[in-house]
Amino acid sequence: MVRVNESLESARQPVSFVEKLAGSEAFGVMFREGMSLVEAAAAYLDGAGREEAKVLPRAAALAYAAESMRMTTRLMQIASWLLLQRAVNQGEMTRIQAANDRHRVKLTQQELASNPEVFQRLPQKLRDLAVHSLRLQARIIHLDGLLYAPALKPPIVMETSPVEAQLEMLRNAFAQ
After folding, report:
1. C-alpha separations of 15 from 4, 12, 20, 35 in Å
2. What is the 3-state secondary structure (H, E, C) of the chain?
């Protein structure tokens, strides 16, 4: 009897499509994309990027340093957020624990550090990585807002579904 009541109670809860998305294969694709981007950026900055930066004029070299530091910070935030969501998806922590300030990854939308003219003088690979990281960050910020903004409000619990209420009114009307 208790299980029937529990299943009825869970049936009254609205389906969270955002939570389904966060636990879906789409999240797995985003996770792999983010981690691959972190690896690609690290390999580039430690290898070819270091060599490319050495031959840049002074102003462009400063812009390269600024852009690479901002990208690295952005990628670390992305990786932290993805790992936290994976922990939630794997049951290592609850979504409420992940939303707690102690665990929460603070995501802030960033722009390119350089003005557009200077940015165009940076190596193409750095530009590609920076733009890719900004796009991924924007997607993650959007998903984060969908996942955690509702956590600040109490969940909506419907006593009866609107359809069930309408059916009950029809039953009553035809019963008379």
Report:
1. 19, 9, 8, 29
2. CHHHHHHHHHHHCCCCHHHHHHCCHHHHHHHHHHHHHHHHHHHHHHCHHHHHHHCCCHHHHHHHHHHHHHHHHHHHHHHHHHHHHHHHHCCCCCHHHHHCCCCCCCCCCCCCCCCHHHHHCCCHHHHHHHHHHHHHHHHHHHHHHHHHCHHHCCCCCCCCCHHHHHHHHHHHHHHC
Q: Could you list the residue range(s) of the whole structural domain that residue 167 is in?
A: 2-175
- CATH number of the domain enclosing 163: 1.10.8.930
- Number of structural domains, the chain? 1
Please list the pLDDT of the chain residue by residue as tens digits (176 residues): 445 555 545 555 555 555 666 567 888 999 999 999 999 999 999 999 999 999 999 989 999 999 999 999 999 999 999 999 998 888 898 888 888 877 778 887 877 766 888 889 999 999 999 999 999 999 999 988 888 775 555 555 556 677 887 888 888 888 77
